[in-house]
Amino acid sequence: MTKYLVIVESPTKEKTLKKILGKDYTIKSSKGHLIDLPKTKLGIDIENNFQPEYVVIPKQRRVLKELKESIKGKEKVFLATDPDREGEAIAWHIAQKLNVKGVKNRVSFNEITEKAVSQSFKKPREINLNMIDSQKARRLLDRLVGYKISPLLWKKIGKKLSAGRVQSVTLRLICEREQEIAKFKIEEYWTINALFKKIEDENTEPFEAKLFSINSKKTTINNKEEATNICEEVKNHNIYVKNITNKKEFKNPYPAFATSTLQQEAYNKLNFPIKKAMLIAQQLYEGINLGSKGNTGLITYMRTDSVRVSDEAKSEAKKYIEKNYGKEFAKSSQNIKKGKNKAKKVNIQDAHESIRPTYVFNHPESIRKYLTNDQYKLYNLIWQRFIASRMKAAYLEKITIDIESGKYIFRASGSKILFKGYMILYGENSQYLDKLPDLKEEDKLKLLKIEANQSFTKPPARYTEASLVKKLEKEGIGRPSTYVPTISTLQYRTYVEKINKKFIPTELGITVNSFLVQYFSDIVNIAFTAKMEKQLDEIESNKKKWENTLKTFYKAFSSDLEKGNKAQKIKMPDIESDEICDKCGRKMLIKNGRFGKFLACSGFPICKNTKPFLDKIGVSCPEEDCSGEIIRKKTKKSRTFYGCSNYPKCSFVVWNKPINKKCPQCNHILVLSKNKKSGFYYKCSNSACDYKDFSKEHKK
């Protein structure tokens, strides 16, 4: 029989830890929380100092029974749940239920490596009750908001709605961005670009410059006539180089990833939704089978606000860089670029390090055969970012050339890399090429071409997952580990839709947000939510008591609840559709339900006929002998795709939006696509056909 029992959260960790700890240890997982507040009621005794009522989660009863059996005959029980507030709370709950209180049995490690795990087991500690109190306060706050406001939404707007402390503020951000877009006034403006060449040297390459100022003032050109006149005037003047500015500067590497920056970079570079990025990161942290090496944790803990790096990891990275890139690339100083919003965080979880590889000599290519394609991509991103963060800054020269033509000044800018530094591994080098010819002041230039281009001001962009995460972090709303469930809930409740990767509030979402802003302005206030995060940090650092924080919160909250209860019921406006009820001949109405939109007869309650809502895009199904229409649909993960309304009789389906045009090469239907370089374009839906149409008619 083994001597010790180690309890972790995830079953995946069991193999990795067993390999490290050996035969004297039995590893069991709690599979998450064992106890929580009851689902069927509030579970908080408000009158008794907000004391929580904890119950065993029904589906976890069997797990708890197994853990109680496993503890028998063991010399000691170690609680090795995740090294954050949530993990600390789970450890405390397990200790209560297994009656292993009052002993130093809490072990936590930032990485699942032999050294980190062994050190933590040599020095187990007591459970941190301040962390427990902080997590308890967060859980109770979220329960109070959710269980008090949600029933009010059911009564005033409709069933199956929900509110949340972080969720509702996030909804407000998305709705306010939509309001900004609606109010935005598009204005016309023109830019003028010219192509110049040095007169005295015909071998010099031509270069482009843009109109910068008129009479030494930056001026907006508002119409075509004005732009045309400027182009003509420029042609009538002698043109020469007025001024050249050379500026040399260092460009520092970004720090290794924290949770939020990993989510953003994985989205922007790998096109990973943040939920997918965090799931894969957890797999890399808990351990991957590396053949003869067995299960090995590849990265440090993936939920962290810190960009700190241990001295040991710095030393290891320095050795790798010197060996593979040269001593001149290795960073010697200990400084690291800090996040812009560091000052807003009172007590970042600095016990954790940044997200980095556990062993830098596990090069992504050397272990690629053991990883899935997605695991490789994310590990490679984390590995490169960390190694780059320990490299020296890049050294750049930025060149600005001002060109005079009468009262008009054109400006050309370029830059080149003098020393690549970290950019040899991580970064876009293409924007730092030497694009300008060798010129000096007073050089005469020849105008080869000048043209005016019409443009229009653009409204603020709707949030993507990455930009929303960036905004939430900047404002101090929630924790990066909460962003995945927050965004998922907004989509599940149909408060927002994701179209072309952008979040758009639905009519239901706008209605709910308006109600919350009117009656619960504190709860959906950005500054208030950020302040609450600060208070939770202060509870962890023992500067505040959790009971006092809840008392202060509930005093204002209960007053808002009274006002909300007096509000009049809001009737969601019915939208008339083109569909006719096949039972009574009346018009069908588009309504919002728990699972999205549906059609209901306008004759309700006399006629109770309902139908699925088909989101038609005005394109007929291209399949032969099919009378169906193409409709917009969503996967279980809310990804948009397009299929035939006659499914399952017709199986036509594509990811990109089809249009009413056929491919001239193979006669398949064309679809709308987009890339960063060309913007929108048409391409053939047949993957075997390479037809693409980049004409301007669809650029809008």
Low-pLDDT segments: 335-350
Structural class: alpha+beta
Approximate shape: globular
Rg estimate, integer Å = 31 Å
The CATH architecture assignment of the largest domain turns out to be Orthogonal Bundle
Number of helices: 16
Do you know the CATH topology of the largest domain?
Topoisomerase I, domain 2
**Name given to the CATH homologous superfamily of the largest domain:** Topoisomerase I, domain 2
Number of folding domains? Answer: 5
**Biggest sheet record:** 6 strands, antiparallel, barrel
- Order of strands, main sheet, comes to 8-9-14-13-10-15
Q: How much strand?
A: 15-25%
Calculate the terminal CA-CA distance, rounded to whole Å: 71 Å
What is the number of beta strands?
A: 29
Question: What is the residue-averaged pLDDT?
Answer: 90
**Helicity, in percent?**
25-40%
What is the name of the CATH class of the largest domain? Mainly Alpha
